[in-house]
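Dear Dr. H.,

I hope your travels went smoothly. While you were away I took the liberty of generating a structure for the chain from your last submission, since the lab meeting agenda had it listed for discussion. I wanted you to have the full record in hand beforehand rather than looking at slides cold. The sequence, exactly as received, is reproduced here:
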Amino acid sequence: MTTASEKTALIVLGMHRSGTSALAGVLGQLGVTLPADLMDAAEMNAKGFFESNRITGLNERLLAKAGFTWWDPRRFPAAWFDGPDAEALLDEAVAALQDDYGDAPLFVIKDPRICRLMPFWLRALERFGARVRIVHTHRGPWDVAASLTRWADYETEFGLVLWARHVLDAEAESRGLPRSFTSYDALMGDWRAVVEGIAADLALDWPRAPAEAAADIDDFLSRDLQHFRAASPTGPDGQVLPPMLARIEAILQAWTEGGDPAAGQDVLDRLRAAMDATGPLFDPLALRSVHRAREVREATARMTRMQAAQVEAAARAVADREALTARIADQQALLTRAGRDGAQQQATIAELSGRVQALDGRLHVAQVQLRQLSEQRAREMQERMALAIALEDPEAMSDRLSALTARVERATAALRAEERRMRAESDRRAAEDEALRQRLAAAETALRDADAARREAEDSGRRREAELLASTSWRVTAPLRLLSRGVRGLRR
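The corresponding predicted structure, in token form, is as follows:
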């Protein structure tokens, strides 16, 4: 590990929403090492917080172990820093410093919670082997309270109490260390003068010359102007700053403008002691403000969810209406096709019935002709046999009989072939008739299914319409009434 003279920690001390992020960002542009595990930017600090996730998380756990929060108006108990819980966390703090900064010769630590926890971090930095330099920055208490109201929904009076707690603790706990005092207004007004003053107060040489970093710093601070405005001398509705806070702000401003930091310390000590004595009185205010802020955030979240649900419900209603319209159109098209198919099936059935009747007629005629031919052939056979007997010519009769027999056999074979053909034709016609009956039955089933689907679609549309019209949400009723009119129009 390097020696203490080779490492210098710049601790930026200041209340939340006091411009500590802007100051740490400028120091980073001047080549001062920022933490490796850098906290992500957010809407309230679009350019970044320039805080270490590890150190901020450790501070949160440290406060919780002592039964405190960063917004507690009481002074953090000094005895805790000498207790076993603090000792257990010191090794973790040194490890966090090593991970974030390694052997960087000049690095910046920034977390407003350190205003309340200076004794702990001074010990941790001593173990880490770094000397400590302090940069105090402040911002007008009205502006800090307004920013806390905007971003955390804290009451204005609560924000003023927290401002006093942080600046008094930070100043008192950093005495005896090399310090430089500045303000957010001074940084935004003339950052060059501010960084020159810090370098002079703390005997520092910036790794990157201000002239070299000027363009980057100008760009950085100009983007930060979205949250900047000059310090407000009065609060909401022209309220005057309470005398205690006005005195604190005046002393800090005098030090920022080059006044002797020793002057006014006794006043700050008396004010801090007074705040220590009255701190417990502010507990109800703190709890009420924090709980109210939480309720406001939860109510806002619920309202956002409700609005999203209403938009979603309206979108679903429109989608349901479109789907219902499409389904009705499909059912109507299905009914039209079913009706057309049914008419075609009826025509086919009529045609096939006619063909069956014609075939039945032809079969009847063929059967009559076959019977007549058979009778004629039998009469001819009898006549020829009688003639042969009368002529008493057996050979002639035999010849004629064989010829007649052959003719009879041929006629019989022809008759049997005709019977087979007629029977096959009859079977084919019967099969066609059965197939036709099956097609007719299928068509009738399709017609019934189509009619049932149509009735189901109409019932579903009426039920959906009734459900949507029963909604009490004023944001939903407008698209529902539109849906109702659309459905009624479709029914007509």
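Two observations you may find useful: Residues 302-491 form a domain with the Helix Hairpins fold (CATH 1.10.287). The chain has 14 helices and four strands.

With kind regards,
E. W.
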